[in-house]
Every structure is written in C-alpha cells, then in structure tokens.
Amino acid sequence: MKASELRNKTVEELNNELIELRRAQFSLRMQLATQQLNKVDQVGKVRRDIARVRSVLAEKAKAANASQA
Q: The pTM is what?
C-alpha cells in the first residue's frame, strides 16, 4: 500500500483501514506466538502499513487545523 493511494482516501476510510490492519497485526502476532506463521515478514509489512495510515491521518489532521486557523 502506497502513501499516495492513502492520501486519496477520506478520513473515515483511513480509520477503517487502520482498524483492519490492527486486526491483521493481532492475528499475525497470535500465529507467530503459536508458531503457525510461515511468512514472518508479513508482521513487518503490516506494521509499516499501520505507520503509513497513521502518518496520512496526522497529515490530514494538521491540514484541517491549518485551514481552520
């Protein structure tokens, strides 16, 4: 998932994406703990996707505050 794709989404869509990614992260952590996870790199990819979504949300919040001031 690219940051440019995320910037085109609304805040509501980004929040939904964040919830979905958090659920995926939890699932991957449980699979890792029970040694059922084959692709260990997925944990890092999901973590970076969460960071991207949170960064775009912060950008949008900052832009909204700047336009109101």
A: 0.90
